[in-house]
Amino acid sequence: MKHETPLLNQLESGPWPSFVSDLKQQAEVRAKNEENIEFQIPVDAVEDLLGVLELSYVDGTTHWKHGGIVGVFGYGGGVIGRYCDQPQNFPGVAHFHTMRVAQPGGKYYTAEYLRDLCDLWDLRGSGITNMHGSTGDIIFIGTTTPQLEEVFYELTHKFNQDLGGSGSNLRTPADCIGSSRCEYACYDTQALCYDLTQEYQDELHRPAFPYKFKFKFDGCPNGCVASIARSDLSFIGTWKDEIRIDQEAVQAYIGGEMPPNAGAHSGRDWGAFDIQKEVIALCPSDCMKYEGGKLEINNKECVRCMHCINVMPRALRIGNDRGCSILAGAKAPILDGAQMGSLLIPFIKVEEPYDEIKEVIENVWDWWMEEGKNRERLGELIKRQGLQKLLEVTGVTPDARHVQEPRSNPYIFWKEEEVEGGWDRDIDEYRKHHQR
Amino acid sequence: MAQVDFKGKTFDVDEDGFILDYNQFCDEWIEYVKDQEGIDEMTDEHKLVIKVLQEYYEKNGIAPMVRVLSKLTKFKLKHIYELFPSGPGKGACKMAGLPKPTGCV
């Protein structure tokens, strides 16, 4: 290896897959170059990456310069520019840009597709990736500016593959695996995610928003893609009718023939399954009972938290009248505090071509694009102008489900037209009845 | 930091090719950036975008939001990309001599 890395070497021990060992392996593969690849960026890029990381381990600070504005023609985002602040010592990472590549729904791949991407990245990049970025993209880590258009050309022309999003735009949408491998999925998350990604390509590639905006699609309230915490508009599957109960299967759980939670707690002895203790008593709305060998659910009171279904997946199933809820405004702390999504649309059908859903999205965007301040997330605009304003622009009638609790302060705004006589009052008229 | 010499002028630029000092902006800079940014010929529309960006920057000390740029120039975002293939940030702001966009890009 080009640089000594005593601190990083310590991370090669232990049972977890070591990123240091993997990087060293990649550095060796590049050094040997048994496939005679005409590397388009420095051969020792990976060694220099380890070198600069070791330096950061030693002095406890980053060695990447501030910012970086690079990209491909036609797009305003997709590439994160990065330059090392010690280019003489680590020339292999003097340029070390990251490319975001749009990932398929649920991140299902074929070996052939991944091999193609790897061949491209071995030639034109460092060969290092992040599978995947938190937003969902396939991340190519480390290449030089002249290679950006080359990678983009090959991605689009050979592999029919586009870049992901970055900047003040619609970022790459992501979904849970949905109905592909989950019996809880209340809608086809991959279909909706794909359709909206294609529909809003323009918004994804060319920043036109006050700030970033994310979509995420969860098939049910379990939230396997964490849409309620990590997307400005969160689509969470649910149902409107009854939970379907298979009483025989309920008995199989009680009899111990089927493990609760599909065996998720089998690593420890929690005693025999007790439906009363583990299901009925834990139901948040207390709407279940088990009497005379029969499980009953008062579905009118059910909040569809998923607990009973999660515990007894073979006995309880989601309803048949399915759709999703839309929640708005999740964001990380900067600037005015972290937010999770707030319920905007309690229930909406998820049916191609998703016109109803697109209408909600576009109404939200019209409002936020006009009213949002520079670098103001949707969640912050909702705080600043009020949830009521969001309801108005989306044409949603306020109802009890929009709040966890009613306000406790009395600073209530009325619209002038709601108040008899309006706001224009004459003080002299008042004085006729009330002396000064 | 690097220096670029072009038609008798010298510019201090960063790795991304943005000038470090707005005062170094001159017509030669436009000519120099033009090729890097995929622009064949400067039209009046290009010049209008540059002018609007510079006036806004001189008055407000920041680059305008994309929406504001569209309003001031009356060009849709699509047209701005037709004029500046890298977009309003990397393309137009760079050519206008404005500081590099920052933040989560």
From TrEMBL, chain A:
Residues 293-321 form the 4Fe-4S ferredoxin-type domain. This is Sulfite reductase, dissimilatory-type, subunit alpha. It comes from Desulfonema limicola. Keywords: 4Fe-4S, Iron, Iron-sulfur, Metal-binding. GO terms for cellular component: sulfite reductase complex (NADPH). PANTHER family: ANAEROBIC SULFITE REDUCTASE SUBUNIT C, SULFITE REDUCTASE [NADPH] SUBUNIT BETA-RELATED. GO terms for biological process: sulfate assimilation. One of its GO terms (molecular function) is heme binding. The keyword Membrane does not apply.
UniProtKB/TrEMBL annotation, chain B:
Its main location: cytoplasm. One of its GO terms (cellular component) is cytoplasm. Pfam families: DsrC. It comes from the Bacteria. GO terms for molecular function: sulfur carrier activity. GO terms for biological process: tRNA wobble position uridine thiolation. Keywords: Cytoplasm. It is found in: Cytoplasm. The active site is at residue 104. NCBIfam families: dsrC_tusE_dsvC. Belongs to the DsrC/TusE family. This is Dissimilatory sulfite reductase, gamma subunit. The gene is dsrC.
